[in-house]
């Protein structure tokens, strides 16, 4: 089983927007871009909204039927590990093996020795085709990489084997993620991580490193664009070389996590994948939930009241809601309106404050990030929230579909 060249991860926290999301892919296809939808949901999201992976699968299957989608599609067990993978086995056919927590744990001494012996031939100047400057690989650099990453790749192999034992080998796509850490992995580290994954027979088709810069939830990229461009380009060339050198799946591609709304880097990524004719996987999640809230605000009436209630509760619980996301949000509390102020807004003002259009003077990135992490509040509202989604399905779906197509897909592929 091989995933198509371009794929896009979408989150649907409350499992009501699969049709609206898929309609954006239908539109892309009409414009000549074959994009594979991948519905992703992590264990944490399932826990917060008290859902199970079978619901994600069901919503995806229904949408595919309803829109008569003939292309590939997948359901991603996002950021799983050995402790929680079992409940995803039946419903998922894409697994994101998250080994970030294992970076820095030291592998057994004999495994490190074997890694050193296997990679001895790269000591000296490592020349990757396409990269102007060779990388200096010393014995001490190799050892540092082994101590930092070998155990994590072994953990990826343990998770992979666990899934493979329960599901047939060719029945799922494997992604390896290391993005939820503070330090980006360098291209040379990536090279040896790939060597180890290949050696351990983990058939990764996508890999999600931590890139330079901040990938805050639902807002734009913050960081050095030039540095990002160089790193992204070098990673692509390293993957290309590693695939040939180590025999990894030839369609192995980069996966960009927290990819929602990274408008500043979309044109850069688009340009480079075009230059080298490479694929990409862009993983987004909470952006759809935000569009639901925008749609409810625009619907007015009791739906606008729900949107206001969500904000009021979010601001009263801001510290609790932000804590699990501390490394991926930057909320400036001084710019947040009070709940009373928001209660006086009309739907349009609320929508403009939340919608990610940077040129709109009402847009407030802190407001957006707060709502982004506040989906638990809506989950706690239960039927009140989901009934409103059903009642205002058309206006909500329009927001979801437009956001995905106009502000994401069009920008990445330059349509
Ligand atoms: Zn991630």
Can you put this structure into words, describing what you see?
The protein is of the alpha/beta class. The chain has two domains: 6-285, TIM Barrel; 287-396, no CATH class. The protein contains 17 helices and ten strands. The strands form two sheets. Strands 1-2-3-4-7-8-9-10 form an eight-stranded parallel beta barrel, surrounded by five helices. The two termini are 29 Å apart. The relative contact order is 0.13. The structure holds zinc ion. Residues 79, 177, 179-180, 208, 257 line the site of zinc ion.
Give structural attributes.
415 residues; alpha/beta; TIM Barrel; 2 domains; 8-stranded parallel beta barrel; two-stranded antiparallel ribbon; globular; binds zinc ion
Itemize the secondary structure elements and their pairings.
Blueprint: E1 6-10, H1 18-30, E2 35-42, H2 43-49, H3 53-66, E3 74-80, E4 94-98, H4 109-119, E5 124-126, E6 135-137, H5 139-166, E7 173-177, H6 187-199, E8 206-208, H7 225-246, E9 253-256, H8 266-276, E10 280-283, H9 287-299, H10 301-316, H11 318-322, H12 339-343, H13 347-354, H14 365-372, H15 375-381, H16 383-391, H17 393-413
Parallel strand pairs: 1-2, 1-10, 2-3, 3-4, 4-7, 7-8, 8-9, 9-10
Antiparallel strand pairs: 5-6
Helix pairs in contact: 1-3, 1-17, 4-5, 5-6, 6-7, 7-8, 8-17, 9-10, 9-13, 9-17
